[in-house]
């Protein structure tokens, strides 16, 4: 964006719910450090800031809401509040020689502090008269977010606060929002990102804090590009720890972030995908078949991220003939993988997992009618827990539902839709348990880019149809689609889409009428 058209922050007197921090020199000095904001909690003494700010805070630090430069403690509008204890995620790991990081753990650049009453004996929230509500955003793209912070003395000798209301987008590859607005120099780290800001308001909803990648800015450290971790389960757990007065769990596994290994150039070749709990940890995983026959597994972390790639099969000629796959518990005690091959053979791998593909069970012989089974997707379409059912779209547009599947048998098959021209245009489909519905559901991407859901699919029919997206050019580029249990609500409503340019997206907690929160797993152009 050219400088002439770039938004610029406005300096103002500040607001009661946002302040800054001081060390031993107190509020009469010029070394204010980072920005904090008052969070509405039952304990009424919690301040939000950035984890990289908290790393350098010592026991003599104080928080000063709506800081007035040059005024002593007793002349500050709401007094001063000594920090009692700081809570930050121990997985936030700065890069060597730095207090910030450009790695995945930059998503965790959030901290909370408990503060003591002010010099008049009043709690933080009682003194300022309110607090911001911790809120998980519905997505990274927001129309109007206001960011309030305190630039350092070097860039702001008057000690005023800066504010700017702008739209946000996702920082590709991270659980972070990005905004463009000038004036956000050092000192604004920790600034709250508020969706319903009002000057001198006593409430509002905060969805992130300035920080994240490189401490909250791009590699050039320009003042007009700022980032913020978008609040999710990790930040919510951290806030709960602060309210409870307990230190965060130090035994959590290393944070993996959103990204899948390899860039878009590699993921452009991901031919087939399926999701199930293949590692046995009760969390959904992602399985990928590549054009060279290689098969890789990405263990899910239950938070929309994935662990290190595990190669189950090296490149081989056999798996280059896989045409459709789906994961589910097909009569066994653990998830398996069902594969339809180019010659019409169908095989089941009931022991598929991190240790390998396991044994193979033939379900249909080569050159059988299954050669016309264009798409397969699993789901509990019989409405009960346990074994997975199979929905099949054939080349003539007909739909078959198979229940009671077991090793070597497709169980009972029923045609739930006769041959028709409409369903020959179903480009992609995946079964799942969409948010807010009961039973198994189906998502369909049509050839014109439109996206429909069918809730309550069963042997009686397709259930209720809802349109999530009308015809559009963007979704015509969705090439591979699967769904599974990949986020913290632990249902099968998380949709993974691989696009034609290799970008790969996760739509967390997708519902019957709307896509879920979009997360970038593989950024475009990488």
From TrEMBL:
What GO biological process terms does the UniProt entry carry, in alphabetical order? Answer: proteolysis
Q: Which GO terms describe its molecular function?
A: serine-type endopeptidase activity
Which Gene3D superfamilies does the annotation name?
Trypsin-like serine proteases
Q: InterPro entries, alphabetically?
A: Glutamyl_endopeptidase, Peptidase_S1_PA, Peptidase_S1_PA_chymotrypsin, Trypsin_dom, TRYPSIN_HIS
Q: Does the keyword Cell wall biogenesis/degradation apply?
A: no
Question: Acetylation among the record's keywords?
Answer: no
> What is the official name of this protein in its record?
Peptidase S1 domain-containing protein
Domain of life of the source? Bacteria
Tell me which Pfam families the record gives: Trypsin
Tell me where in this chain the Peptidase S1 domain is found.
Answer: 31-208
Give the keywords, sorted: Signal
